[in-house]
Write a structure and sequence with these properties.
- The N and C termini lie far apart (about 40 Å).
- Helix 3 packs across helix 7.
- The chain has about 280 residues and is an alpha/beta fold.
- The protein has a single domain, classed as Metallo-dependent phosphatases (Purple Acid Phosphatase, chain A, domain 2).
- It contains eight helices and 13 strands.
Length: about 280
């Protein structure tokens, strides 16, 4: 049995299927971990959702910011479409309700404690241990399944930008969602900056990539993530970053989580101008 982690697909379903062929993936034998952002920007978001859902329990999927954007469009009254969205085919599909129900049932994060892996779309706040982060993910997931419209109507915004255990209500949930699905850079005190999106080295001097903050409490596990196409592929003991910008004309990446084999990468034709959206 092989366990593959897959970078941000974003509706590039043809590339996903070809990549799995190159990995010699077998649905009845192997396991897939998706880092989120299954949909949007690419040309086949509907086909991607249908395909990954058809894999059943063999596919572990965490929610990314584009997946949450789709759910917010479907369930909330305030969220508006963005230029470059490729989500209408899902929202107009005859099986839309089944697909959206399946997507909204995906976790925000997965902590595989026995194997020392933490699957998340963007990252972990530096003050969170893996166990604490997993518990916070369950808090958000419970609200998503019980009162999605209220959650999405209040989810968007960049504040609060610093974790405090005393946070409550939507401030608490918003911070957790932002860390798990949007974070790239933080200041030394753990304050998130959600505006800087360039590659490490291009940010203001007072910012560090979240995974390089000294004293980060999740440094004893391997965080498997995506979200950051300008970061690209990065592999070290405590980090496996897999967003290699397929939808921007980069590549789609798969890594066998249980070996030291090099990544399997498929060059993509590109479906959005680099930097769009």
């Amino acid at each position: 049995m092989a366990r593959y982690a897959i970078g941000d697909v974003q509706g590039c379903c043809d590339e996903l299927k070809t990549l799995l062929e190159r990995c010699h993936f077998s649905a009845d034998r192997d396991e897939l971990w998706f880092v989120g952002d299954l949909v949007n920007r690419g040309p086949k978001s509907l086909e991607t959702l249908r395909f990954v859902r058809s894999l059943g329990t063999g596919a572990t999927v965490v929610l990314g910011n584009h997946d949450l954007h789709l759910l917010a469009l479907a369930y909330a009254s305030k969220r508006k479409r963005k230029d470059g969205d490729t989500l209408d085919e899902i929202l107009d599909a005859p099986d839309r309700d089944q697909l959206l129900e399946w997507l909204s049932g995906r976790p925000l994060a997965v902590y595989d404690e026995p194997r020392g892996d933490f699957l998340v779309h963007a990252g972990l706040a530096p003050d969170w241990t893996p166990r604490a982060a997993a518990k916070l993910a369950r808090e958000v997931e419970a609200v998503l399944r019980e009162d999605a419209r209220t959650l999405f109507d209040a989810m968007y915004g960049n504040k609060p930008d610093h974790w405090n255990d005393s946070l409550r209500g939507m401030d608490r949930l918003r911070f957790v969602i932002n860390a798990f699905t949007r974070m790239r850079f933080c200041r030394a005190d753990g304050t998130m900056d959600l505006k800087a999106k360039g590659a490490p080295g291009e940010q203001p001097e007072d910012l560090l990539p979240w995974f390089d903050l000294p004293g980060r409490k999740s440094a004893d596990v391997r965080v498997v993530c995506g979200h950051w196409s300008t970061l690209g592929y990065r592999r070290r003991k405590d980090l496996l970053a897999l967003d290699t910008g397929c939808v921007w004309g980069g590549a789609l990446t798969a890594v066998n989580l249980d070996t030291d084999e090099p990544p399997v990468q498929l060059a993509c034709s590109g479906h959005q101008p680099p930097g769009a959206g």
